[in-house]
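Sequence in, structure out. Go.
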Amino acid sequence: MSMTYKRKSWKEKLEDNKKFPKILKFDPKFPCGKSLEKMGARKGDSVVLVQPREVVEIMNHVPNGKLITLKEICQKLAQNHHTKYCCTLTTGIFITTAAHAAEEDKMEGKKKITPYWRTLKIGGYLNDKYPGGAENQKSYWKMRDLEFHQKEKNILYIIMRII
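Output:
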């Protein structure tokens, strides 16, 4: 008798995990260690790993015409949990998962989806891991009368509202 494996949908992957939130003492050997060290983390600093819904909630509150970065989301989450830092790796995974879940919602005809295109990577970079990659993220901006300018070869963009 063979067991069939049903692959989880992106929305199912966003369901809260009983292991989170979790507050740890920072160790540079963490998978997010190099990223947090660049932000100033030192061994022993408090780091939170959050629930996916916390990340989605912040993404859903970014107003039209505004943008947020992974770093800014992590800063808000760390503040919410009274820690110095937030794991950039798990938060980044949840951001990408939220983007794919939003596209699932869109395919189901839902009118309100998480505006993931307003969330950039650390440093203001477009996210190639979003559905359709960076080009799709730019197309959302074009639909909303936002203009983007390439600043560097590696797709760092500045966004401006067209008046």
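Check: DSSP finds six helices and seven strands in the chain. Residues 158-163 have pLDDT under 50 and may be disordered.
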